[in-house]
Amino acid sequence: MENLKAKIKEAPETPKILELKEKLEEGKVKIFEKIEKGLEKLNCPLWAAPALGFCKEGRVIIEKDPTTGCPLAPKCIIPGEIETLPVQPEKPEAVEAVCIALWDPVCGKDGKTYSNSCFAKLASVEIAYKGKCEANECQTDADCPQLRCGPAGTISAKCIGVKAR
């Protein structure tokens, strides 16, 4: 399967190649569906298949929890993909770090969502909480329900506790 995928990736995009790529993607979806159906038998916690198009350039790996047999979050292994940390003053060489493209989102203190804690660490960002960063409902002061009285009896809205963009 991996050899076929590699050959298709290198081939020029003809209608036949596009059809094969689509069939490969459909095969992934069917595998994920089988995993989801098998979870009921194992009494596993809720598991969601990755989004369509997840890991097009690599290989999806789904490991099992050794104690329960339940599938863990899918990982995307992309051959040759590494991230390099900046050179530390006390070290003469750059330290290579590799993060697996595992979708286990964390929200950084910079307000950005990182695909997992490894990528947040590579960006030198502290983690605010697990999960995607929640969109700030307060885009402008006019969006916010907290009212205040202004000069000459005018009423205006003011964002409290968050910065409006």
Automatic annotation (TrEMBL):
CDD domains: KAZAL_FS. Residues 85-135 form the Kazal-like domain. PROSITE patterns: KAZAL_2. Pfam families: Kazal_1. SUPFAM superfamilies: Kazal-type serine protease inhibitors. This is Kazal-like domain-containing protein. The lineage of its organism: Bacteria, Candidatus Kueneniibacteriota.
